[in-house]
Amino acid sequence: MQRNLGKYITALLGIFVLTLSGCGKTPQLNVKDAVLILSPVDTNPSALYFNVQGGPEDVALRSILSPSVIRTEIHKSSKNDADGVMSMEKINEVPIPAGEKVEFKRGGYHGMVWGANLIARKTAEMEVLFTFSNGDIIRVMADVQELDGSIPDERKALGYD
């Protein structure tokens, strides 16, 4: 009897451990590490880089919006294998596979941003809204930086230089 009880307890512990191992955290759709790199020429677009972590289902990033800018677009850079020339095109959405990280970085997917306002330049941050095909809207505060990685020069932002 005691021998069977030991086997029974061992079996229950095994089932308990297997059950707990399946209780991992469900991946959550999120956006991190957003940074706007200001163009050195105010009339040219700036670049927005960030990372999207896929959630429990496949989705697509459909838009990037900010009350601090005039216009935004999603772009993809690519290199032509035949001649090595880089090109950039506007795209309507970017697939975000479930549980996977998609990087929006130089030379790949990225946001193009026109007309970052004085508040974003002066505070070195701006609100960005990312909208997805499943209806999720994720709000992130993006750092605003000069091309060299420094925070924007307030005198330059005010038009004194």
Outline of this structure?
This protein has 161 residues and is of the alpha+beta class.
Q: How helix-rich are the residues, as a percent range?
A: 10-25%
Provide mean pLDDT, rounded: 87
Proportion of residues in β-strands: 35-45%
Secondary structure tally: strands: 10
Word description of this protein:
It contains 3 helices and 10 strands; from the N terminus they run αββββββββαββα. The protein is an alpha+beta fold and 161 residues long. Strands 1, 2, 3, 4, 5, 6, 7, 8, 9 and 10 form a 10-stranded mixed sheet that branches. Strand 4 (71-79) and strand 5 form a beta hairpin. The protein is globular and about 75 Å long.
How is the secondary structure organized here?
Layout: H1 2-21, E1 30-37, E2 46-53, E3 59-65, E4 71-79, E5 86-91, E6 94-96, E7 101-104, E8 109-114, H2 118-123, E9 125-132, E10 137-145, H3 154-157
Parallel strand pairs: 1-10
Antiparallel strand pairs: 1-2, 2-7, 2-8, 3-6, 3-9, 4-5, 4-8, 9-10
What characteristics describe this protein?
161 residues, alpha+beta, ten-stranded mixed sheet, 3 helices, 10 strands, 42% strand, globular
